[in-house]
Amino acid sequence: MKKRLGKGLLLYRGHAFRRSLLLILIVTTIPTLLIAVSSYYIGVSYIEREVERTHKLQLDYTVKQVSDALGHLQVGMNQWTLNPMSDKLRGIDFKDNYAFSKEFFESLTVLNNSSALIDQSFVYLENPPRLISDSQGIHKLEESGAKPYHELLAVKERLFWRMLQAPALDGLFVIHKLPVIGEPFGVIMARINEKQLLNLAGFDAGLGGTVFILNREGTLLSRDLFSPAVKEMNEALVKEISVKQEKSSSFRWSWGNELYVVSTATIPITGWELVSTVPMSEFLKPIVLVSRLIMAVGLISLLFVLLSSWYASVRLVQPLHRLLRTLISPAGPEPLLVPKDEIQYIEEQWRNLSRESHLLQSRLEGQHSSLRTGFLLQLVQGHLQLLQEQEITQRMEQYGWEPEGQQFVVMVVQLLGFHRLQGSFREDEQPLVTFAAVNIIEELTGNDNVSVMNLHDLSVGLFTMFPREVSPAEVAERLKRMASEIGHSLHRILKMDTVIGLGQPVSAISRVPIAWEEVQQALRHRKLDVPNQIIDLNEPMSEHADSRYPFTLEQDLVHAMVSGLGEESHRLLGLFFQELKAHAKRELLLQQGSLKLLGAVQGALMQSDVMQAGSLFDWGQLYAELLALKDSDEMQVWYAARIVEPLMAELMHHQNDRARDLVERTVGMIRSEYQTDISLDSCADRLGISSSGLSKLFLQVTGMYFVDYLTKTRLDQAKELLIGSELKMQEIAVQVGYQPTYFNRIFKKMEGMTPKDFREHNKL
Fold it and tell me: Which H helix or E strand runs over 186?
């Protein structure tokens, strides 16, 4: 089937017109409908995900607040039990110790007021069984009534959380055994104010939903006491969580014709599970309305789109008709017979034209600069060694070179000081700086005999050809001028130092890889104190003096790093590289010194009993990274970031647990040996630690210096003896570990009165 193309050109409607009209209709109408539909589903899905994510983040923040409050409560309990007064409760008779009883009940009152989460504090003492509180006083317990409290003494942990259902009291408690060290003779219990706890883990009542806490015993804590609907919802949600096979911190849950987002999180300090729900409907209303408006607008504009599509198709098909006229009958406008499918006809004609121009395209592609650069990189890196000299020459001719009668020279430009540009470029933008350097060099050496190669690692290679009749002296002179101009331009524009290696001329292409390797090796002999330098292999290289390695600084630095002295390690690291740079005059010696230091650090860590070096560092990767660095400042920054900081963080983590154990053992020594001549040095010797280290740890954990804690312990015991005995002042001084004269001075200094005045004042 064929149709006639004549004077009624605009009335002609072939396959091209129908396809273009259909395509325009699809392009203009379908996307509008898709946008409306997808905006609804995608928007709803996005809002739902954002609600889940925001709700989870808010819950994590709430968990942190609750955990911090409970942690503060635990710290208060620890501080109360560390008070020397708690040791005196074993078998105490409160009737005969009025002053102690007064101080004891005051301390309970202080503990009650220390946290809004504490509803009431109680102390249970064995032998005889008694339950004590500041509001209810001392309540003696029968054997059956004391059984729930006696069972608390058998719990393994010293401090734990428990839901009690005892006759005298019930509720959620944080419990700490008495004393801190030794066989327990009682417990101190703080009842949690559940209302305050749930207020701390509250939710937005305006959005609906619920919040509750599940403790380890499965007891539910929630604000549903006056809302049966919320209570029913909570019970259903607990069942949903318990039967859910896949444990997830966030999921969607349907209840009462409403979709909720449920998020759960564990409070780390207690192991309780905090559960929060938020309804979805309030967040989805805006996106539903907007999507419906978009669909309505799309339907209204559909008619206009149909009309505009028909007009656009007519306009689009006119150039196609003119192209057919040109291909079929360039001479005149007479009617012609054409195929039914115009596009197929044009495609066949285009293939014929493509075949005729294929040879010209091949030559143009052969001159492409990327192919030339790729060939040069293969050549200098030795990937063409299996080819004969003639084969390499032929390939060079294909790429546009004329190697016949030429001698060849390679150059390498190395950029230095990239770390000084960190304010302008990121670490991963080294290829960008290299690309800028390539463009600058191409502008300076713009002729056919110089080819520039981008090595992407702050290095640029140059391949240069000179006629063989040019003398070696003239070649060297030209290369030096070129290198000098390149170095000055790069330094002026990029603000970076350069080292440029000039290879020796070779007459055979196959020897270019050898010359390239010689230049690369020569760059490692650059002088560190020369900012911009040229290394010419045509000139004899000067011998350099032996470098001096800073062994003393190395030992001090390694010791500081293994000991966890962060500031000292950074200071010694700077001194080490300053000393190394001052005596290692060349890059090769600088790299050798930095590698030797890394080996010393590795050896020290492997011999250290603090940690195993292999568990923290990938030494093979570290050696490879260090070998790639060429500047002492870059090496120093690398050591600080890759060695010192990770090591300090790891050592700090291991030291925290050990510090608490050492301080607890020291407190036990003080309480059991305060009558003797106990000292910080003696405790440090027994624990195997330096006295200065123990003093620092003691202050960090207890908030008091060792001598202050010892003095307080002795004076507390002295007060008890002054009030509860008729011993003389000298006898009391000896019993608490003081000389009588010093006892009077220290007592008056700390209490504001003499021991005698204290006894008389308290007897009144």
Answer: strand 186-192
Residue 147 CA: distances (Å) to CA of 121, 122, 132: 19, 16, 16
CB 684 within 8 A of CB 693: yes
How many Å apart are CA 443 and CA 490, to the nearest integer? 12
By the 10 Å C-beta count (0-12 exposed, 13-18 middle, 19+ buried), 752 is classed as: exposed
Supply the Cα-derived Rg of the chain in whole angstroms. 43
- Residue 118's contacts (CB-CB under 8 Å, 6 or more residues apart) are 73, 111, 112, 190, 191, 192, 193
Which residues partner with 361 through β-bridges?
A: none
- C-alpha to C-alpha distance for 131 and 138, rounded to whole angstroms: 6
The amino acid at residue 490 is L
The answer to whether the CB of 69 falls within 8 A of the CB of 200 is yes
Rounded Cα gap, residues 399 and 369, in angstroms: 9
Q: What is the pLDDT of residues 219-268, one digit of tens each?
A: 666 666 557 777 777 777 787 777 775 555 777 788 777 777 788 888 88
Q: Which of 393, 391, 388, 441 is nearest to 413 (CA)?
A: 441
Reported as a single tens digit per residue, the pLDDT across 590-620 is: 777 777 777 777 777 776 655 554 466 777 7
Question: Which amino acid, one-letter code, is at 553?
Answer: L
Asked if 378 and 437 count as a contact pair (C-beta separation under 8 A), the reply is no
Burial pattern 320-359, b for ≥16 Cβ within 10 A else e, equals: bbeebbebeeeeeeeeeebbeebeebbeeeeeeeeeeeee
In the DSSP assignment, the letter for residue 585 is -
Q: What is the signed CA dihedral for 698, 699, 700, 703, rounded to 10 degrees?
A: 120
Note whether 169 and 191 are within 8 A (CB). yes
Pair of tokens at residue 478: 């030209």
Beta bridge mates, 501: 412, 535
Q: Which one-letter DSSP state was computed for residue 511?
A: G
Measuring CA to CA, which residue among 380, 534, 535 is closest to residue 454? Answer: 380
Helix, strand, coil fractions of the chain, as percent rounded to 5: 60, 15, 25
- pTM, entire model: 0.37
Tokens standing for 494? Answer: 């990029």
Phi, psi values for residue 612, rounded to 5°: -95, 125
Token code pair at residue 206: 């305006």
Measured CA distances, 690 to 316, 649, 683, 694 (Å): 90, 22, 9, 6
